[in-house]
Records
---
Amino acid sequence: MKNYPYVITVSSEKGGVGKTTLATNLAIFLKALNEHLPVSIFSFDNHFTVDKMFSIKGQKLTGTVAELLMETKGCDLLHTGQFGVSYIPSSTTLPELRGSLKGPMALAKILANSDIPGIIIVDTRPDLDIMTQNALFAADRVLVPIKDMASMDNCRNIFELFEKRGLDRKSLSLIPCLIDERIKFEGLFKDQKTLLKAFAINRGYRCSETFISKSPKVESLNTNPDGKIYPILTHGRGTDVYSQFTALGQTALREYADTKEPRALLFDNWQKEEDKRKKEAYFGRLTGLKSECMICGKELKQDSQVAYYCESSDGAAQGFIESDCFTGFLISAIFRIERELASDDPTRLMINQTARESVFVLNPAEGGSPASIDFHRFNLSGAELLKKQYPLAREPERDGFTGIVQGTLAGYEGQLRDAFLMVHPVDGDNPASILVDESYRELNKLKKTIAAQL
Ligand SMILES: Nc1ncnc2c1ncn2[C@@H]1O[C@H](COP(=O)(O)OP(=O)(O)O)[C@@H](O)[C@H]1O
Ligand SMILES: [Mg+2]
């Protein structure tokens, strides 16, 4: 059975609010509270705190979060770390990867396929860049530390992002952090945490019951002559923060236990449905194909030199065209060259070459009597390069258009349908690849671009 991780992301656009302290120590407390539960962590930041805290001396490192984002399987990147927490080493090259991430759902997909068990904690950079967005969208629970009004104002952007993407804002919870309990106010809101909580709730944000105090002890765990980062679990016993992390850990474990289907599992199911749908759509397109060449009408065989895909804009006719047939059509019907051109004739070779780099469109010209065909050539990005009108001959076999036009655009009682025909080059070794999901989507985009110009 595949494993699907439960993902907790710690995020805030503000730095210095205690994200990394929260992420790393929560991982350690979770493991301490339930030693059988696999807990792992990685960070999108480049300060290597995760590595400093969890790596084991002399450990050989293989792979980092950069490889994770490049779709190396997550469970293969986990390193056994200190305190029983597994970690994926951090990377300094993440900014270079931003461009290659396929949108904000990439990490959700990667984690759905990661086979990482238990809980995984993701620490983020103090901004809402594409990496953080990915960490937010992959999360079952997002923890947003706030320490003052400024950091609360900042989290509005996270909420707006959730709103915009239709994500459940109930998965977001604010945690008042670095709370100085010596500060007391007069009146209703007697201290910092009560004030922050009231403001949060007033704005419709969910706020954690537990808050984290500002503690000189915790601060000293980061700054010491050993240059190490010590965990609260082992070095902060007896402090308020110790009990607060215990409470946070217990809440997280409860929520984890209550989540029967983590997002990774839901995403995987959705992905399987999508794959099935794409496959069915592809086979649907394959069965709709004509089995003959769209120009000469001869049955296409395994060894036919197929070179073009041809589709009518109304979807009624779809099929392939043999290389020689289409070049022959261009030579006789378009260039009006009467004599036979040998296969190595330079004119023929040039016409053939041009055709491989073009998209052709034929459509019945409006009005005109006798009926005419508008012939257009576009480049592969859909920019029009040429347009010319060709009258159709009274005896159809004489104009060279009959095969291609009658076979595809024939309508009611000898009329042509109000549609256009698009001819696009394909890979001769695997012509049907143009009908596969992404290529076909591209082709449709091109078709739209072209239709807008007709
Ligand atoms: N509960 C706490 N009490 C005192 N200092 C803290 C506490 N939590 C974090 N700090 C200190 O605050 C600073 C910022 O914390 P950090 O976790 O790195 O925040 P972020 O990841 O949001 O930038 C660090 O120096 C850290 O040691
Ligand atoms: Mg940090």
Note: The radius of gyration is 32 Å.
---
Amino acid sequence: MTFEQKDNRQSCPCPKCKSGNVVIYRKVAKCQNESCGLTVWRSIAKKELTDGQLTDLLMNGKTALIKGFISSKTGNTFEAAVKFDADYKTVFEFPPNKGGSKKRRTK
Ligand SMILES: [Zn+2]
């Protein structure tokens, strides 16, 4: 008997090399293709991403807005989306300021 899902690990296609599979482990998501080396840490700014958020990042290139990150500089909490930069490192994408934007009227 073989049970492949005993660890209940999720995996999805790798956005970087396109041929490998990214397997989501407890602390990290990692591409199985050794020459690719895509690695995404689950813990970002003192927040642990969920499997769903990691999958969003891998499948769509970015997550939805996530609340509860903590800045290492100021200690303040903030919200941001997580996305890949050109090197497939994780970076924050902050929501646009709603307060300061000009309203455009449509005719
Ligand atoms: Zn890969």
Note: The helical segments are 51-60.
---
Amino acid sequence: MSGNLVADTVAAETLGTALRRGGYSEDAVYRLLGDDAYSSERGDTPTDERRLPQTPAATLVRLFFLQLGVTTEEAEAALGRSGVDALEATGLAEIGDQVIPRARLLPIGKLLLASDGFSRDVDDPADYVATYTPTARVLDSLTPRPRVERALDVGTGSGIHALLAAQHAGRVIATDVNPRALAYTTLNAALNGIHNVKCRQGSLFEPVEGETFGLITCNAPYVISPETRWVYRDSEFSEDEVSERVLLSAAEHLADDGYAAMLVSWIALDEKAPDERVIGWTEASGCNSWILSTMNSDPLTHAAEWNSHLVGEALGDALDEWARYFDELGVELVSEGAVILHKRSGGGHSSRVDELDEEDLDDAGDQILRAFEARARLEELPSDKALLEERIGVASSLRLERELEPAGGRAVDVEGSVDLADGTKHAVDASADVQEVIASLDSRLRLSEVVDTTADRLGFDDEEIEALREEAVEVTRELLELGALRFRGD
Ligand SMILES: C[S@@+](CC[C@H](N)C(=O)[O-])C[C@H]1O[C@@H](n2cnc3c(N)ncnc32)[C@H](O)[C@@H]1O
């Protein structure tokens, strides 16, 4: 028992079955509350409540999505008596004449996820357990999902990444310092009929000393600040130490060919070298790494962002305190982002840094796997030129962008790029001629053959052919490293 929660897994499994039988799903939420249902906040509840009809499915949305009370009769009509008993047994609601939810329980994809209710900002308790937040979504989208024997989720919170890993891992360990987080994770596994997730309480990797995993996930409590107010946000470590520890420990705990996906943050003492520290950590990790920086800001902007729940004097005091903290450390920039590590059996530890727009991110797990596979193959090539002899195909949807300007009545190319239409949505600068090469790729042909045929079609002379080859190699390499193209046979 942790607070009101009772880790009664039999009751949670019964409740999960009752919820599914009652039609509680993402589709039902969207149907009843509209496309923006998941971005609504506490203040939107009165409006949302009034959208709901009097049906059993709407009762479930009212109870669990909006976290509002219903009569016991209504709850029984939607969940059955056994479902209501299960709700009481888990402590997720208080049952009298009314059923009053103590938690929110959301359909997330095919999963059901219980967590503490809507945030009350400053009034949230120190051990508040959040739901599937925007950062959890970013980590989910960036997690490679190969079939693995063992997976680890560090700082599991309500357990979302552990539950997702349980779909493609033999066994999953979920760790957290917060016992309420682990109670939710245990309940959430049972709610979904998942039996291969085990919880261990402890700090970071302490509970798994000496063990290795094929996949490690961690949405770290990475916010750099002078505070230790909320366990989900503020770690007990200073500066960016929690991120360094997570990254280096993840590398130590990866099995050969294993992947780690982490959300972390890092400071820069010189704004001209914003990623120096995180690059240093990835180099020390001995793994191949991909750093995807989502944000970098000056300390005051960072402080304002993470104190947006405050107003007036309280906000001013917090900004002063945070600014003093960063000033004393000599910090010029604070960055946040994801780091993906791949431990190669044969060694190899190159780093790649890209910016990532987290608002424009789709599921990128497969893309990331392809990116690391391609990187490993590229590292084996004796030279860039050797790429011309490889057979390379297109692995994801691409969009060719060209910007033309008028010149003497004709159109002249000024800019062009090959854009990834899915996943991380990165773009690679490419002339119109190289776009032709990329559009003609065929995994049965060598890159040199594709370049030559394109040059022929465009009527190029020797010098132009050489320039086309050089640019084609450069662009192809970038697209391979981004997982948009793949070597034949991968
Ligand atoms: C940003 S939340 C992420 C929660 C969840 N994994 C997600 O993505 O929604 C960070 C989590 O790390 C946990 N945490 C904080 N300090 C920790 C530590 N030293 N060791 C392990 N977990 C910790 C918090 O309790 C919280 O659950």
Note: Residues 179 and 383 are 53 Å apart (CA to CA).
---
Amino acid sequence: MEQTFPQFLHHGAADGVTGSCHRYIASPHIHLLVDCGLFQGRESSNGQTIDFDLDCVAALVVTHVHVDHIGRLPYLLAAGFKGPILCSAPSAHLLPLVIEDALKMGFTRDKKIVERFLKTVESRLLPLAYKQWYPLRNEECLQLRVRLQRAGHILGSAYVELDLKQRDSASSPWKAHRTVFSGDLGAPYAPLLPAPKSPYKADTLVIESDLSPALVPLPR
Ligand SMILES: [Zn+2]
């Protein structure tokens, strides 16, 4: 049977709500990660290792800089991730500060090592403006673009829209698919942050929930 894309894999926040890390598979060779969070509390007992393949991962998209969404970044870089880190401009300012804390808590307080590591992180950051599409791939039979929208959760927070267009050949019609990754969403009427605006549409929505499958009534 013909494979359809996008496909999804969850490397965290699948059985709980921490360690958020989702793999978006645009094609067999073009993968993205959305967030790379630390497992916390009871969920941290499994360790923070990156036990998944990074060969096809072209970029990491960060929704916001809470530790349960970016805290595994040091582990990701140690595992050999070489791609850019896409996030909003405020997140690009905040991310090194949060990672510095995470490093000092879990890795080392050696100033030189921390500084070197943060330099690497900063060189990978690619800040994106809100509400603007950014092309990731523009090939004859595959186009992929990303857009960040305000999530109203913390400074710099975003939900992520990914548009994938595919066709079988240069003469075939395009098939389009929009995916929305919610990240964490805030409420409207917060004094400091603009209210989140609902996405215009989504063919696939990836959203966190604390409903365990056992609590979701199954259709009879
Ligand atoms: Zn959060």
Note: The radius of gyration is 18 Å.
